[in-house]
Amino acid sequence: MADNTHAPPPPKRSRIEGDSITFTNSTNANNRCENSVNSTSSSDSSQATVSLIYYSRLFTNFFQIQPEMLSTTGKYFVLKRVVKSVKEIEEKRIVTEAEEHFGFHWVMVRKMEGDRVRFLVHCFRWPNTENWSIEVDTKLVVRTNRIRAVRDGYQTLTTELIILPTSGRSLSIEWEELKQYLLVDEVTVEIHVKIKKTTRIYKDNLRSFDDETMKEFSDVVLVVKDKKFFLTKQLLAVHSSYFKALFLGPNRESRRTEIKLTGIDPADIQNYLELLCGDNSIDEITIEGILLVADKYDTPLAARKCEEFLLKKSVKDLKKKLQMSVKYALDKLKKHCLDEIKSIADVRSLLPVNVGELDPSIMQELFKKSLALHIAH
C-alpha cells in the first residue's frame, strides 16, 4: 500500500468554488496585461451563470471528478499551466504566456483573495477595434494525479480595448489546500474555452448577402444562428464537395431552399463567402475562422488561399503556423515551417507544455531535425 503520510486529508466535500465576475470596458491599453490583473474586482452578476457539476468518489485519500468536457470542434482551445511549486503561484500573477487564438491574445491569471486563489482568463484585442462582444463556454479544470475538479461557465465578453473581468464565474480553490497538494504532486490548471459567437470583432463586411439584389437572384438561403445568407447553389457546389453532394444528390436536402448550418460563427461564414466571391477577406484575424469553415465544408479554394497568405504575408510566429498546418492539413505550410528550423532553440520553441499533445508526425520530424542538428554540431 502506498505511503500517504504526507498527503493532505481527504476533503469531506469539494472546496473548489466560484465567484462572480463581469466583463467591462477599459480605455487604457498601456501595460494592459499587468493593469488588468491589478484592477480586477469581484461582484455579483446575473449576466453569467456557472454551476459546478461533478460526480465524486473517494480514491487513495482524494476525490475524483468525471466531467463532461467541451466539444473540441469549432473555435476551441485550452490554456494550461503545470505548477510545480508554491513559489510559482506566489510570484506569478500572469500564469501563462500570451497565446493567439482566433485573432485574440489570451492569458491565464491568478488572483489571491483572502484564503482563496482564483484563476481567470484575460483576453486582449487590437486597440483600433470598436465595441465588440464574444460569447464563450468555458471549462475550468484543476487536477493532479489524484484529484480532478471542473467548473462549467458561460460568459459574454464585451469591451473596446481589453477585457477586464469584474463579473461572471471563475474557478477558485483554498490556498492552504492547494499548497498541500503541491507538497506531494504537480498541479495542472487548465481553462478550456469554446467561442460560440462573435460580434464586430472582424473587419467591416466587404459585401452583403442579404440585400434585395441577393434575395432576387438566390435559390438557397444558409441560416447561421440568427443570420441569413442569400446565395446560389451553383456558387457553393462549385467550390465545396459538401454542398455539391447536398444540392445535387438524390436526398431531400437537394430540394430545400433553406439550409440551417450549425457549429459555426456567422462572422466566419461571412468571410468565407466573401472569399468564394473573389473578395480579399483574409487577414491575420479572420484567417483561422475561414479555415475552420473551409475544413468543415471541404473547400479547397479557401484553404489554398489561406495557406498562401500564411506562407507569404502572415506575421504569425513559427509555432502558430506549424499548429495551423497540422490542424487544417496545410502540407506546404507544414514543410515550410519545418524547413525554417535552424537550431535546437528553434526545436524547443515549437514544443507545447505537454509534449504528449504534439501531433505524432510533427514529433517525428522534430526528432529528426534535432538529431541532425546535434550531429552537425
UniProtKB/TrEMBL annotation:
Start-end of Low complexity biased regions: 35-44
Pfam families from the UniProt entry: BTB (PF00651), MATH (PF00917)
Record protein name field: BTB domain-containing protein
Residue span, BTB domain: 218-276
SMART domains recorded: BTB
Superkingdom of the organism of origin: Eukaryota
Organism this protein belongs to: Caenorhabditis remanei
Lineage: Eukaryota, Metazoa, Ecdysozoa, Nematoda, Chromadorea
UniProt-annotated stretches for the region Disordered: 1-44
Biased segments, Polar residues type: 21-34
